[in-house]
Amino acid sequence: MKKTENKYVKKHPFLTKILRMAKYYFLMFVRKEDSPSKIAHGFAIGIFVGFLPIIPFQALFSLLLCSIFKVNKLAGVLGSTTITNAVMAIPVFYAQHFLGRIFILHDFSYDRFKLLFTQLNVSNIHYAGKDILIMFEMVTIGGIIVGIIFYPLAYYVVFRYITKRRERIRLLKKLKKIRASS
Within a 10 A sphere around the Cβ of 179, how many other Cβ atoms? Predict the structure, then answer.
């Protein structure tokens, strides 16, 4: 089995490095000495912030909120980058746009969106700024609604996972101690 692992590492060194790094941060996240409740609240705050359309500032905003509520900061940053990473950002924000449209009551279709960014020039910059602001409001309102829905779900899943994992490790250590003493 070692030979196939080494062959894979030699064949895909970049992918192996990324997977090892992801595993390292995951284990660092799970093995934190904080209580499962603090870790779960931090992750749920990160998930909530991840739905807000402030992509370059999500991690900072998540750190700020986690500091205010005195919960796990690493979990908050991981949660905020889980939702709106490079792959998920466009579909998530597009879906939030439709949800926000219900509350803003402004007709902002895909054709108008495409027209806004394809025919942008100096003469219509005033209208474009207004449309961009309306679109930002729609995505923000949709993000807040979706974030409120996903906060308890994220908290429950992470809390349950961490408590079960810690219980399993505790039982394995106890079993190891019993085997060593026999």
Answer: 8
Locate the DSSP E strands across the chain. Answer: none
Tokens matching residue 66: 């986690």
What is the reported pTM?
Answer: 0.77
Sign of CA pseudo-dihedral 123, 125, 126, 131: positive
Q: pLDDT of the chain along its 182 residues, tens only?
A: 455 556 656 677 777 787 887 778 777 766 667 899 999 999 999 999 999 998 889 999 999 999 999 999 988 998 998 888 878 888 888 888 888 888 877 777 667 767 776 777 777 777 777 778 888 888 899 999 999 999 999 999 999 999 998 899 899 999 998 888 87
88: tokens are: 């998920």
